[in-house]
Amino acid sequence: xxxxxxxxxxxxxxxxKRSRYLKVKQAKMVPCPQCGSLxxxxxxxPGCGTYKGREILAAEDDAG
Length: 64
Ligand SMILES: [Zn+2]
Description:
Layout: H1 11-25, E1 29-31, E2 38-40, E3 50-51, E4 54-55
The chain binds zinc ion.
């Protein structure tokens, strides 16, 4: 037999446990250096379409 928990974990304790690791999983938002709008860290900005100073997506004002 493997190790088993002696008691069932209460709803409150389970929720606390979950909240601890879910906090880490929460998406990190950073302001874009180009346009200043909040975007997901390490992603292309949805506002201006740039990442690390380089344009990745076509800009909206650019004949597109
Ligand atoms: Zn931007």
